[in-house]
Amino acid sequence: MRAGFGFDAHRLVAGRPLILGGCRIPYDRGLEGFSDGDAIAHALIDAILGAAALGDCGSRFPAGDPRYAGADSVKLLAEAASIVSRAGFRVNNVDCTIAAEEPKLAPHIESMRIALAKALNIDVARCSVKAKRTEGLGFTGRGEGITTYAIATLDEL
Ligand code: MG
Predict the structure, then answer these.
(1) SS3 helix, strand, coil % of the chain, rounded to 5?
(2) Which pLDDT score is estimated for 66?
(3) Which of 89, 72, 83 has its CA nearest to residue 35?
(4) I need a labelling partner for 119 at 20 to 30 A (CA). Which of 32, 76, 82, 126 fits?
(5) Per-residue pLDDT tens for 41-95?
(6) Ligand 1 midpoint to CA 31 (Å)
(7) Which residues place a Cβ less than 5 A from the ion ligand 1?
(8) Alpha-carbon span 65 to 13, nearest angstrom
């Protein structure tokens, strides 16, 4: 059994759709990024690649590479899952936390779990997504950005 950890943070800006966990969430701002800015998908990519010691999101899907301009990050997550699978690992479970002051994410948690589990090719019961506020503290608390954390365990086949 291997464990991996991932982290990400993106700035919230006007004029972008808010994409989190593969879901488009109604809000007046979205996450800035070279791809679609899906910070939860990015943290998960780092967690599963990290568990397999196979690099990270930035080295596998570099910002600036035209192939990833505006990329659907859940597709990149599926690609990362197939990289770890080809290396002889199976994703056992993942657990994610999103730190965001706004918008309310509770109504979208189930959709995110379903989209992420599908990309990871695991049962939704093995895919946990949680959301927290930070009591107004720091850049997430001021609504300037969103921070994400993820952990993954992989079985070595
Ligand atoms: Mg990112």
Answers:
(1) 35, 30, 30
(2) 95
(3) 72
(4) 32
(5) 999 999 999 999 999 999 999 999 999 999 999 999 999 999 999 999 999 999 9
(6) 9
(7) 8, 42
(8) 22
The answer to whether 71 touches 31, Cβ cutoff 8 Å, is no
Pairing mode, if any, of strands 2-14 and 127-132?
unpaired
Predicted confidence (pLDDT) per residue in 123-156, tens digit: 999 999 999 999 999 999 999 999 999 999 999 9
Distance 33 CA to ligand 1 centre (A): 7
Distance 45 CA to ligand 1 centre (A): 10
3-state secondary structure of 86: helix
Ligand 1 center–CA 34 separation, angstroms: 9
All structural domains of the chain, each given as residue ranges with its CATH number in brackets, are 2-156 (3.30.1330.50)
Distance separating alpha carbons of residues 59 and 65, to the nearest angstrom: 11
> Which amino acid is located at 151 in the chain?
I
Ligand 1 geometric centre to CA of 70 (Å) = 12
